[in-house]
Amino acid sequence: MLAIVYPGKISGKVAAPPSKSMTQRAYAAALLHNGTTIIHNAGNSDDEQAALNMALALGAEIVERNDDRIIIKSSGVCPAEDIVNCGESGLAARLFTPIAVLSDKQLTITGAGSLTARRMHGFEETLTALGIVISNFSGNLPITVKGPIHPRPISIDAGAGSQFLSGLLFALSYAATEPIVIKVESLSSRPYIDLTLDVLKQFGRVVTHSNYKEFYIDPAQFSHTETVEINIEGDWSGAANLLVAGAIAGSITVSNLNIHSRQADRAILDVLRDAGALISTDGNEVSIATAKLTGFGFDATHSPDLFPILSVLASCCMGDSTITGVHRLFNKESNRAESISELLQSFNVPFSIEDDVLCIEGVQQLQGTIIDSYNDHRIAMAGAIGALCANGPVDISEAGSVNKSYPHFFNHLSLCGVKVEIKDN
Ligand SMILES: O=C(O)C1=C[C@@H](OP(=O)(O)O)[C@@H](O)[C@H](O)C1
Ligand SMILES: C=C(OP(=O)(O)O)C(=O)O
Questions:
Q1: Does 305 sit in the ligand 2 pocket, CB within 6 Å?
Q2: From CA 321, how far away is CA 299, in angstroms rounded?
Q3: Where are the alpha helices (DSSP H) in 203-264?
Q4: Nearest to 209, CA basis, from 240, 245, 181, 241
Q5: 234 lines ligand 1 (CB under 6 A)
Q6: 107/90 Cα distance (integer angstroms)
Q7: What percent of the chain has pLDDT over 70?
Q8: Residue 364 pLDDT class (50, 70, 90 cuts)
Q9: Is 334 known to sit in a ligand binding site?
């Protein structure tokens, strides 16, 4: 699919899509929970569907599903199949692999598209230390695993990402019969761990930690209720694109956002404030309007998904901006250090990468161009928002990639007055 986005003003109000990170966690917890889970406002992006498929393949059952809620019943991990597929979702792979081995059945976990090229850091050492037999694994999916997991104290290095630690926290919280400690050497994407702990808590599994260095799982502190009800909040990562659009090209109100959310990408508000955008909040609504924007400095080590859209914001500011955390970009849907560099080159924006820092010289007006999205949803969305400040239309290749996290993205832009043409190719 090709999307052509025309320069112009944005104005209007849209609701943020449901949080992909939270929906996926809710499905993992619903699988592990012995009882019924009622999930309100779950998302329907490809990644969320991939997580639901994993939960179903590993033993959960849908009792009821409509637009507002999905009811899932489970009695724990009990795989129905030998091969389970995570789609293109990095989180589904890293969350459900340690969960799957609560069963003793040999399973092959596969993925699709870009996921099969992404490294699964820590799988080999940690899963082996937990008694799992691994075969057919060369660092990326597929992986064949044979449980059951033997809970014991472990150390993990989560410097390359937090997702596998989230998976271990889920798995060990349900597998442990004695207190155990997980030691963490370094941790990137820290707020995603807060989100994991938050969801576990809603299922009666309170896991504590000392400054994210040691996590304490103590089954004696856990409680159980048959039915758990969980509400999925709006997605700050998807909303960040719309909020930046308001800041660079008019005004926008995004509803369905929890201002006090633990989501990493809520940090977009701090950056927009720093850059000088006009911001107001009212309950669950955030309104942003264009003002004179100036360069900003932001460390995105713990919110790496903001990098693409922040690059566009920086391009539209007066003066220089710096975004730290380039090392967090290599193992995503594309090598985002490369895809962002190409995005900036296409828009004719001067930039440099100095060690871990992306330095961007704002130009305010971007060049109408062709953007290679690398089939990466966050590059496609950032390219579309950049188009609003371009001197001509912007063609975005493989724009259907937005389905990975935000299927209604282009509809929402159109609803806010942006001219978008979609061509199937
Ligand atoms: O736990 C999550 O929901 C996520 C964690 C982050 O990954 P890393 O922890 O690998 O940085 C983020 O980039 C990803 O989109 C979602
Ligand atoms: C990196 C992302 O997701 P995942 O790692 O779950 O594929 C993302 O949504 O930008």
A1: yes
A2: 11
A3: 236-249
A4: 181
A5: no
A6: 18
A7: 100
A8: confident
A9: no
Can you give the pTM of this predicted structure?
A: 0.98
Q: Cis omega (within 30 of 0) on the bond before 148?
A: yes
- Which two tokens mark 143? 């992986």
pLDDT value for 136 = 92
Of 47, 305, 372, 395, the active-site residue reads: 305
N-term to C-term CA, the chain = 5
Q: Nearest CA to 401 among 332, 310, 311, 312?
A: 332
Nearest Cα residue to atom 15 of ligand 1: 305
- Domains identified in the chain and CATH numbers: 2-17+234-423 (3.65.10.10), 20-219 (3.65.10.10)
Whether residue 425 has pLDDT greater than 90: no
Q: Residue 310 and residue 270: Cα distance in Å, rounded?
A: 12
419 labeled binding residue: no
Rounded to 5°, the CA angle 354-139-28 comes to: 95
Mutate to test the pocket of ligand 1, among 23, 212, 305 (most ligand atoms within 8 A of CB): 305
3-state secondary structure of 417: coil
Residue with tokens 């870009």: 114
Given a cut of 90, is residue 334 above it in pLDDT?
A: yes
Helix or strand holding residue 361 (H, E): strand 357-361
As beta bridge partners, residue 250 has 10
